[in-house]
Design goal:
The chain is α/β, with parallel strands linked by helices. It contains twelve helices and 19 strands. It has an eight-stranded mixed β-sheet, sandwiched between helices. A four-stranded antiparallel β-sheet has the order 5-4-9-6. Helix 7 links the parallel strand 14 and strand 15. Helix 1 crosses helix 9 and helix 7 packs across helix 9. It is elongated and about 95 Å long. The protein binds zinc ion (ZN). The site of zinc ion (ZN) has 4 residues, from loops.
Amino acid sequence: MNNHHWTHLKLDHSIEEMGEISYSLIERLYPLCRSITGEGTLETLKILNENFDLNIKCVATGTQVFDWNIPKEWNIREAYIESLSGKKIIDFKHSNLHVVSYSYPVDKVVPLAELEKHLHSIPEHPDWIPYRTAYYNETWGFCLSEKQRQTLQDEHYRVCIDSDLKDGHLHYGDYFIPGESRDEFLIFTHICHPSLCNDNLSGIAIATQLAKILSSQTSLNKSYRFVFAPATIGSITWLHQNQDSLHNIRAGLVLAVAGDAGPLTYKKNRNKECYTDQLVEHVLAANGRPYKTVAFSPYGYDERQFCSPGINLPIGSLMRTPNGCYPEYHTSADNLGLVQPEYLADTISAYLDVINIFENNAIFLNQSPFGEPQLGKRGLYRKTGGENIERSILAKLWVLNLSDGEHSLLEIAERANMHFSEIQVAAEELYSTDLLELTT
Ligand code: ZN
C-alpha cells in the first residue's frame, strides 16, 4: 500500500499581501542596469539570495553551450551625449535605457549625421525611450525619446560610453526544493533586462514569492526548481549544464510579463499532448476570469529553448499580455506604473493553483469496483433520498467510477466538469476509508 500525502499549501501572507511584497521587490530591483552579463545582473541574483539560498553559477566567457559561446562580460560606468560647450543632452545616470546594451566603449567628437546612425527613438511615442541591445554585434548606440532627439541641432557632439567588454562570466541562479518524488516542476524567468518592469521584473518578483512559499512547506510530494537566468543564452547555458537531470521535469512554466492589467495568457507547448497544458488550462477555465490561450510558436521567451526539438520539455508559458502585444513593451513606459500589486497577486494566485494540482494529482484505484460501493454505511452519502444529488456526492461518484487505474484526479475533474479542488475533497474523503488506494 502506498501512502498519499495531501498537500495544503501554507501561506504566511494573503494573496493581496504577496502582490504588495512582489511590487516592493520590483521597486528595489528597478534601478539596476542588467544585461545578459555584468555586475547589475549579478547584483540582482545577490538580492534574490537574501530570500533563499540561491545557487549562483558562473560560466566563463568562451565556454561552448550547444551552438553558442558565452559572450564577453559587459560592464558600464557612465555614458552621455554632450554638446561641445559641455552641456549633457543624454545621460545614462538618468536612465539605463539610454545606452544600447553591450555598446563597446567610445569617446570622441562626431558630426550629427554620424551620431544619427547610432540613435534609436520611437516617433509615435515621442516621450518614451526604447530599449535596444546589440549583444552579438560590435557597435555602440544611444536610445532617447523622440523629443530629446529633436533638440539635437549642433553640427558636432561629444559621445562617451565608458564601458568594457572583457573575458568574464555569465551568471545564473538555480534554486531547487526537493520533495518526496524526483518529479520536478520548473519555473524559469529571465533576468537580463535593465529598468523594465513587466518584462521582466514581474517574473523575477513572482518567482521569488513562489520559491519562498514552497521552501517554507514542511513536506512536498513533488520537487520544484526555479531558474533565474538571462534570456536565450542563459536558458541555453542552463539546459547544456543540466542535460543529465532534464528527464525529471514533468511540467514547467516560463514566467514573464506577469504584472500588467491584461488577462492571463497561456502559451501552449509545441506538442499536442502536454501535462503543463492540462494543468494550466484547467486552472484558467476554473477561475472564472477572462483568459486567453495561444498556440506554440518558436518565438517569444525561453519556451523557444525548452521546446526546441532536441530538448522537448513539457513546458509552456503563463503570462499576462505577451511580449510585443502592449505598446509599452521594451520602452521606458514599461515602468513602475504599468505593473500593479493586484495584477501580480492575480498571477501568483494562478501559479499557486497550478502548483496545488501538480502536488496532489495522482491515479487511484477503486477498491470496491463491483457495483457502486455502499457510501451510506461509511457516512459518505446523504441521509434522505429523492432530491437532486449534491455536487460533493456527485464528485465522489466520479472519483469512484474513474479510479480504474487509468485516470488521474485532474482527468476526472475534466470529465466531471468540476474544479480540481472539488474532486480533491472527494478523493480525500474516500481515501480516508477503505475505498481508494494509490496506484504504484
Ligand atoms: Zn524583453
